[in-house]
């Protein structure tokens, strides 16, 4: 590694994960402010932005997630710092594309952050999350997310997940075309 590269500060790619209502968006805003640098574009990327436009119609969920992945891909290529992915990211395969993109880019420090810290051992009750979301998300959705939650030990654990690899290896999305 060249000396110039060693002294270069790595940009940040932070992937938030957690059930709705745990504070991902507030945390994303705080982290964005904390890591922002003058004259460098920064960004929070949330699929909810697209879900809101489609009135949370499940018919568009796959397309909305694809658009968010494309946005992150473009941001990585522009050198945005920090990049914060503000999605539930319940399963490893949901985080895999973001981590894969960041690793391929090469100049990003990638962090996964669970909210609340230590989830699921330190979880917030479904009733409380339901209230915090003003009843807009059915309790069955929270139960579904809890049942699907996959522990992510570290970045390598996610990248080496065979289901994720098989799910994404044939993807024709722009971020995955080499």
UniProtKB/TrEMBL annotation:
<dbReference type="Pfam" id="PF13671">
    <property type="entry name" value="AAA_33"/>
</dbReference>
<protein>
    <submittedName>
        <fullName>NEDD4-binding protein 2-like 1</fullName>
    </submittedName>
</protein>
<dbReference type="InterPro" id="IPR027417">
    <property type="entry name" value="P-loop_NTPase"/>
</dbReference>
<dbReference type="InterPro" id="IPR026302">
    <property type="entry name" value="NEDD4-bd_p2"/>
</dbReference>
């Amino acid at each position: 590694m060249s000396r110039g590269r060693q002294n270069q500060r790595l940009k940040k790619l932070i992937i938030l994960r957690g059930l709705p209502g745990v504070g991902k968006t507030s945390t994303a805003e705080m982290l964005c402010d904390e890591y922002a640098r003058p004259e460098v574009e920064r960004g929070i990327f949330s699929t909810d932005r697209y879900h809101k436009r489609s009135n949370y119609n499940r018919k568009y969920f796959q397309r909305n997630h694809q658009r968010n992945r494309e946005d992150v891909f473009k941001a990585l290529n522009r050198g945005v710092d920090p990049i914060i992915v503000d999605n539930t990211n319940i399963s490893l395969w949901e985080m895999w594309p973001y981590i894969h993109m960041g690793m391929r880019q090469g100049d990003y420090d990638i962090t996964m952050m669970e909210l609340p810290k230590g989830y699921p051992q330190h979880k917030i009750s479904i009733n409380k999350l339901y209230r915090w979301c003003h009843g807009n998300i059915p309790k069955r959705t929270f139960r579904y997310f809890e049942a699907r939650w996959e522990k992510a030990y570290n970045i390598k654990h996610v990248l080496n997940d065979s289901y994720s690899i098989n799910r994404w290896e044939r993807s024709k999305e722009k971020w995955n075309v080499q």
